[in-house]
Specification:
2 strands; globular; mainly alpha; 14 helices
Length: about 425
Amino acid sequence: MSQQSSIRPATGGESVGKRESFQPPRGSRLDYLDAVRAIAIIGMVLTHIGMYAKVPVVVEFVASGRASITFAVLAGISAVFMARSASRRAGHPDPNTITRDGQMTIVKRSLALLVAGLLLSAISFGPMVILTTYSVLLLLAAVVLKIRRTSVLMILTALAAVITPLLSFGLRTIFPPVDELMVPSVLELTSVEGLLANVRVLLLYGFYPVLTWIPFLLAGLVLGRVVTSDKPRFRVMLGVGAGLAAISYAISLAVRFFTTFDAERRAAYEIYRQDSIARQDSIAHLGFGGAAPEYSWMQTESGTTRIDDIRSLLVAAPHSGSITEILGGIGVTAILIACMALIWRFAGPYLKPLATMGRASLTYYVGHILVLDVLLLLGLAGVDTELGLGVMLLILVVAPMIIAHFWFRKFKRGPLEWCMHKVAYLGVGEQGTKA
């Protein structure tokens, strides 16, 4: 029996096809993707509140890196929806063909995000802001979506996951970083050198270097094509994602514990730690009580792999940009999306608060950084004044869910989402539904 596909936005003239029994119910939005968006930002929140509460080490390790990777992959999926929306408006028979309007919609949204990211980085006292990298990835999507064959995108994703970390390693070995900047900021735009520093950290040296984040965009474009197809194979997505994650993390663990890699890292870190203690190099403002923390194999990197050991390319440390981190992170994102799609049919009503908050993902992301800034200004950061994990979760997870619930009773979009919509569709007719 044929029914309208439940995993595509419901618009006039939608194609009709068979629905797999495990697909989520039809709606004007893909709610399960909104839920994944919310999970991604909650994961980032958990990695950002170390100054205010003690987050269990394992929880922070699981969220670190993987949450922001999921956020970036979802950027690719969103780009697919924007392109398909423009194709529908133009009456194009091939939904995988991006029109000029579709490209301009993505470009305008990208530029708006770039401005937002530069401004937010200037006022963020703690969290590294991902929005500038996110914006450049969207800009690339406007070009890459010209490729209509999904199989070609899959091949490009696999190649990029291996080649971009190698290229980054080589370039940083030949041209070591010269900037202390970690993410681009509008404050650096007062001079030519500041502008160049912004470009360098954005593309290669920063916490979210575009070069090694390209695979996440490409993976998002592939997954976007999958979830918008007439018969999305979520179980296949789940299997492929699980395989990618398992193989990548197994290789990483093997390099760590069956070679001298981890022992050498531990010894080098202990020298640094003892030196910092001897010099009373206090970092109490980071919540460590005046001494560098003890070494842990779960520690986060600063956006790139180390260039003193090529084995780091196979170690899936969070925010390292290694081959295994990239492939493992893509696998985890595929697992999240597939699992959420599979369980939405029977658990959707219980997960609706999560999806509602995810509808305002940009507002939520920016808002949580502003709230953290306010708490810091109020003197509520650090080991002596920390609020506790429960209080922080109430402020940064529960409260936004409640606010989103009442907001969307009256409004169609979140505040910043409304602004982005107006910018993206400036001079373009009303669009179809987007994810």
